[in-house]
Amino acid sequence: MAKSGVMLVKNNSPETANKKKKYYRKNVEFFKLIEKIKLWPSRTGMLHGIKSIKITGEIAEIITHCDEKFIVWNSRTSRAARWLRNKWCVCACKKCKIPTWKIEKYTSTMMTQKWGSNL
Q1: Which of 28, 36, 73, 82 is the most buried (most CB within 10 A)?
Q2: Residue 42 CB neighbour total at 10 angstroms
Q3: Residue 89: phi, psi to the nearest 5?
C-alpha cells in the first residue's frame, strides 16, 4: 500500500515487456547507429533492412536485403541520419521483408539529446 492509499501493482506480462522503449542519444556516431538498428532509409522514404556493412575509414558500403548497394559517408547531419533519428520514413521495403517486430522496436526507440545509450 502506498502512502496515498493506492496499491501499486507490477504488470510483468510479455506484452508490456515488448513495449519498453529504448533510448539512444541523438548525436551518436552515424555508423554505430546503423550497425545497431540495421535499417537504411532510402530517398523515397522506404526503410530497407541491411544485410551487410563494410566500414572503411569515413566511408561505408551498405548492402540491403533487396541487393541495393549504397556508399555513404560518416556524417551525423546527413539526410539518412536525420531521417533515422526523426523517424521520417513512410513505409518498409517489401523486397527486404523486414519483420514487424523490428519495425515496432524501431518505432518505440526514442532518440533524445541528453538521455540514453551512446551505443
Answers
A1: 28
A2: 16
A3: -75, 140
